Amino acid sequence: NGKPIATPKRTTDILHKYGFSFKKSLGQNFIIDVNILQNIIREAGISETSGVIEVGPGIGALTEQLANAADKVVAYEVDSRLLPILDDTLHNCGNVQVVHQDILEADVKAMMNVCFDANQSIHVVANLPYYITTPILMKLLREELPVSSFTVMIQKEVAQRMAAQPNSKQYGSLTIAVQYYTDAEVVMSVPRSVFMPPPNVDSSVLKLTKKTEPPVEVDDEDYFFALVQACFAQRRKTLRNNLRRHFSEWADRDIITAVLDETGIDPVRRGESLTMEEFAGLANAFYRKFR
Ligand code: SAM
User: Fold this and answer.
1) How many CB atoms lie within 10 A of CB 119?
2) 123 C-alpha vs ligand 1 centroid, how far in Å?
3) By percentage, how much of the chain surpasses pLDDT 70?
4) Other CB atoms closer than 10 Å to residue 53's CB: what's the count?
5) Which is the closest atom of ligand 1 to the Cα of 28?
6) Does 29 carry a binding-site annotation?
7) What pLDDT, on the 0 to 100 scale, is given for residue 2?
8) What is the 241 CA–ligand 1 centroid distance (Å)?
9) How close are the terminal C-alpha atoms of the chain, in Å?
10) I need a surface site. Which of 89, 142, 159, 271 has the fewest CB within 10 A?
11) Does 261 show up as a binding residue in the annotation?
12) Is the pLDDT at 1 greater than 60, yes or no?
């Protein structure tokens, strides 16, 4: 099958052949180490029956390895300059379909209906463009796609926040948002030297495994997420203070204290000490009081 794309020599050759110059604004840092890619694919649990959705194939380094391991790969790439390159580098990979679209605007659910079998297990695997890591993952999670897992290379700090435990400085509203839908685990840290060009930040591989059921029962998801965000608005302030500020326009201070009392959560605690269950209890109590 020839040499993999993910080597310094082949990547440089491909870039020269097409006169390609990296766009920093699109988060273009390509992987030039095939071992890293194989480790990612192993962590993702890809088998020859899997369907894979990739975001940002670049020149196809990861796509090529995914095509060898999986049944089918659909890859979304926004940069039109990469399309002729991918046609060339992936010409032997008949099971890859490149979609020229901004992932944030894509109807992924509709694509999945067309491109994958109804009973096939589907995984998202990607070396994400770091400038939009959170919007991409939140979009894919909130759309509740029939996807089993997400295995993504992202900025280390963001991976730590998504996989954080209560009472740590990384724990916040992003943690709750991600862990509401998935079990999150940082599975690998990755040196800057495996990218061309090397990024200015450290990277980790995060694996998100879809929960079969929501971990808590919330009356209204948007209300729940907004309340969680409010509890972390000023991290150093107590729950009572953050919630007073959140509800200030239309709720009496005493009502805030009364609802907190009802839930049994100490109003002088900070958001970072609350578990998902406690946040759910809090959100439902305020929702029922005010709706
Ligand atoms: N997968 C390749 C690799 O690992 O070598 C490239 C990864 S690079 C970090 C991110 C890729 O995402 C680039 O190819 C970039 O053009 C693409 N990209 C950036 N923004 C995008 C968007 N909104 N939708 C789809 N692809 C995007």
Assistant:
1) 6
2) 17
3) 99
4) 27
5) 8
6) yes
7) 78
8) 41
9) 62
10) 142
11) no
12) no
Beta carbons within 8 Å of 163's beta carbon, 6+ residues apart: 175, 178, 184, 185, 186, 206
Chain segment 162-216, per-residue pLDDT in tens: 999 999 999 999 999 999 999 999 999 999 999 999 999 999 999 999 999 999 9
Instruction: For residue 284, give both structure tokens.
Output: 């439902």
| pLDDT at 231 exceeding the cut of 60 | yes
Question: Which secondary-structure segment (H or E) carries 66?
Answer: helix 61-69
Q: Which two tokens stand for residue 158?
A: 């963001």
pLDDT in tens, 243-258: 999 988 767 878 899 9
Atom 8 of ligand 1: nearest residue by CA position = 28
* Residue linked to tokens 């993952």: 137
Give burial (CB, 10 Å; 0-12/13-18/19+) of 213: exposed
- Which residue's entry shows tokens 């009472």? 167
How far is the centre of ligand 1, averaged over its atoms, from the C-alpha of 213 (Å)? 31
Q: Please tell me the residue having the least CA distance from ligand 1 atom 12.
A: 56
The first and second tokens of residue 7, run together, are: 């080597």
pLDDT computed for residue 248 by the predictor:
83
100-116 residue pLDDT tens = 999 999 999 999 999 99
Output 42-50 pairs: Cβ under 8 A, ≥24 positions apart.
43/151, 43/187, 43/188, 43/205, 43/207, 44/123, 44/125, 44/149, 44/151, 44/207, 45/123, 45/149, 46/70, 46/123, 46/125, 49/120, 49/121, 50/120, 50/121, 50/122, 50/123
Which atom number of ligand 1 is nearest to the Cα of residue 6? Answer: 5
- Token couple for 81: 């300059």
